[in-house]
Design brief:
Layout lengths: L2 H4 L11 H10 L1 E5 L2 E7 L10 E5 L8 H18 L1 H9 L4 E7 L7 H20 L10
Parallel strand pairs: 3-4
Antiparallel strand pairs: 1-2, 2-4
Length: 141
């Protein structure tokens, strides 16, 4: 496998089911790191895949133009694709079917570097949470 193949964002990694997305919002833990609010939860066993699944939401209320919303979604997916290796490894080792929902809450388009650093911090918090036995995570921080 070439290095580029390892970093692909595959179809199995996309959280697409409306029910699964609703479950993440209803039952999931939420974390905040500007410009994101991140919801994550363990998927039910019957739909379980050991590959973490994610989805992105950019509100139409804050970004009227589809071009801007799509640009932000591309940036978020790219940052996730490049920084999710530790999370994938953790999910596979612990057979943890994790689902993640990223909600972009900023009012303006942040530079890619800011998006990536915030996303990296949130992924690190989730990794720490499940590495240390699922201890309670400080919500909203």
């Amino acid at each position: 496998m070439t290095p580029m193949e390892k970093l692909r964002f595959r179809k199995e990694e996309k959280l697409k089911s409306r029910k699964a997305i609703a479950d993440v919002f209803d039952r999931g833990t939420q974390l905040f790191q500007y410009p994101f609010k991140m919801y994550f939860d363990v998927l039910p066993e019957e739909t379980a895949s050991c590959i973490p699944q994610m989805s992105v939401s950019v509100p139409k209320k804050k970004f009227k133009k589809a071009v801007d919303r799509n640009k932000l979604k591309r940036r978020i997916r790219e940052a996730y694709r490049l920084n999710n290796k530790a999370l994938k490894t953790l999910c596979i080792e612990k057979a943890l079917p994790l689902s993640i929902m990223w909600v972009y809450i900023a009012r303006e388009i942040e530079p890619y570097e800011k998006i990536e650093s915030s996303l990296r911090k949130l992924l690190h918090k989730v990794n720490e949470h499940y590495t240390h036995g699922g201890q309670d995570i400080k919500k909203g921080s």
